[in-house]
Amino acid sequence: MSEPIVVIRGVEKWFGGLRALGPVDVDLKPGERLGLIGPNGSGKTTLINCLSGLFVPDKGTIVYDGRDITREPAFRRARMGIARSFQIPRPFTGMTVLENLLVPMDYLGSHERSELERADEVLASVGLAARRDAPAESLSQLELRKLELARALVTEPKVLVADEAMAGLSENEIDDVLALLMRLNDTGVAIIMIEHIMHAVMRFSQRMICLETGRIIAMGTPQDVAQDRQVQKVYFGERAGA
Amino acid sequence: MEFLDLITNALVSGVALGSIYALLALGLSITFGVLHIPNVAHPALMIAGAYAVVFANARGLDPIVAALLLTVPFYALGIVFYEFYARAFEKRGRGNTLQSLTLFFGVSLVIEIALVVAFGTDLRSVEVPYVGRSLEFGIVLLPYRFLVPALLAPVVILALWLYMTRTYSGLALRAVAHDDRALSISGVNPVSIKRHAFGIATALAVLAGAALVITGPVDPFAGRVQIGRVFAIVVLAGLGSIPGTLVAAILIGIAEALVTAFLSPSWAPGVAFAILLGTLAIRPSGLFGAR
Predict the structure, then answer these.
(1) Which residues of A touch B184 (CB under 8 A)?
(2) pTM for the full model?
(3) Pairing status of strand A18-28 against strand A6-15
(4) Can you tell me the ipTM of this complex?
């Protein structure tokens, strides 16, 4: 077994007197597909914000690729290879799709291929090549999700967090995004998927974690987690007479 | 015939005036338009720039050449200024833009007082061979002291527009206003982008100062009459729109020249706001504003 690429230990995040997260321990192996589920407000996005650097945890440590990154700012983590997409797509408006990908190019370090080639390659990989020069505001919901992923991919991540990348999409569109994430995973990128669409996250994940009120209540294969009594209780409530 | 003379000359001088106004407003269209920082000290910085140009001119340098050289120290000054602002306000969290107005008013006053202490309250001007002469063709008469800065403005605006649309760091500068969290997730440090933007805006202030002092003499308080006008131009343009800044400024310049020619010069300063209010009633996001 290879060493984990992300090691989260005892991480806690408090908002005022409320503990939104933790303490949690999570390991992620290189190239792994990890599903993160839990009801609204269970701390999924808080955990991801701690990993991507938008929040600094109040307790605990986060190690990435052997380096303690607990206090590193988000932009430096992005350069190291931790990328994420946002739950609500946040394109840079007033720019084209291509320009959205070119924004960070001066800051991502040198590369043998040109910036334009890299951006075009990413657009092709998410199926947005035809919309290259369209204004970001003109994209459909599915295209916005793809742009959100494309913007994450242009940093050439080793870990990608897809935060509800499929919310609000049709079944066909969900298959489209799932296939895209699978192809990406084939290239060796570890993916953490936060998702409410249970069949999608179960199909995708090798391993799943369920959070509830900021703590991990179940961890294991998708089948194990789905059949876990506590998980079922959280999702469906106590069955009368059960 | 006299009416035609008057209106043609008012239009020509209005365009020239507007072009100069655009240069005065350009730095603010970055700090206020793009970064949403209400930098009311911009006109005072501009006057500081004008004094620096006067100082260099007294030592034999052409004011425009002097201003171009001075953009470097002014860029550095802008970075220091932003660091000061960010430490006082931004790092404590969001939503402090209104309180920061007091800081910028304070900076404005400090600049004015420093200029008074260093140079006194007398009017200062630059000496250039073309001041006092005019371009004449047909019925149009345009003094070179307006024409030269009016030609400088579009060049500077074009350069800034190319930077903002054709370079990666220019794109990042535009992106920081939309969403600095999304920007940091992309691997860009939003603070360093804002610092750089403030540096550019302050460097533009010295070019604006040169333009202003070529058109006429300045005193330490000459920035005050510009505060309302430059904010009106930036809002009228549509926040952050560089071509919009030029169009809005020329509109206001023409309107002011017409009002001066046909009504009274004392109405002119109010014209910018009349146009602003009228436009915002129809287009709340300004002439070139997004949505």
Answers:
(1) 53-54, 73-75, 78
(2) 0.89
(3) antiparallel
(4) 0.86
